[in-house]
Design goal:
Blueprint lengths: L1 H14 L1 E6 L4 H6 L2 E3 L1 H10 L5 E5 L2 H10 L4 E4 L14 H10 L4 E5 L4 H5 L3 E3 L4 H6 L7 E4 L2 H11 L3 E3 L5 H4 L3 H10 L4 E4 L5 H4 L4 E2 L2 H10 L4 E5 L3 H9 L4 E4 L14 H9 L4 E2 L4 H17 L2
Bound molecules: 1,3-dihydroxyacetonephosphate and iron/sulfur cluster.
Amino acid sequence: MQSLIEKITALKKQRNAIILSHTYQPGEIQDVADYVGDSYGLSVKAAEEKRADCIVFCGVRFMAETAAILSPQKEVILPIPDAGCPMADMITAEELVDFKKEHPDYLVMCYVNSTAEIKALSDICCTSSNAVKIAEQIPKEQGIIFVPDQYLGSWIQEKTGHTMALWEGFCPTHLHISPEMIANAKKEHPEAVVLIHPEAPKECRDLADGVMSTGGMCSYVKESSENAFVIATEIGIVHTLQRQNPEKKFYPIDSSVVCPNMKKGSLQSVCDALEGTGGEVITVPEAIAEKAIHSLQKMLEMSK
Ligand code: 13P
Ligand code: SF4
């Protein structure tokens, strides 16, 4: 194991590369990453990174695509080419064009968990950490089309009171969280604060103490005077939280809340990506990238 880490370190230097990892990635990948964060933090990192020539993006395809759009001068490598996000693939460009025709006066807001084509057809992008903040800056009388996650969409609607047309996409991993799981976790750990991701259904969100993105969970836990937390999102973040807060206790809502795509990689795949023997260099066709960048830049501006 040590020699693989040493090899990764040497290759990183040789290629002037940085490793970015989402909080849902396997612990061994998070531990070698230069930066571990949520979708928003990773987008900012990709946009602001000035020194590296290459980004090894340990996450799923839409994240690497976002980095390639925001940082076109860098080589962005996705170590596992078939690590996709089923939710992002639940709407096609043609379907969004038709949905827009049904609501011609609505503004289009897309979750970052979407393809570059969808971002190119949207007015503004968001992540779960800035979705409410962005929607709050949109005039109340302005209708919003939200794609592709109906659950994050309904949460924004609940928080802001906007009239919204929601695409019926969902995250299979978060949809797997049930009210029974939350009730059981509360019974087993009555002292713990229950934090849930807005991709989870409303009946589960309503039972939690706090609804927040993965980045929101990291900041909340750090600042909280509480010592125990039930974490109702993908299990990988428990590693991140435990590493950042060794003195606190974290209980995953259920060991079955796993995103299979986020778990396809390993230290070996990171090493192969750096060596050029594995992974895929992610490129976005220029015609799509030059449109998609507007919705992403708008997100970055409105999140400040
Ligand atoms: P965040 O990183 O924005 O919390 O999103 C979670 C997620 O499901 C990423 O795919
Ligand atoms: Fe997509 Fe859900 Fe996996 Fe995130 S956790 S990558 S939304 S399937």
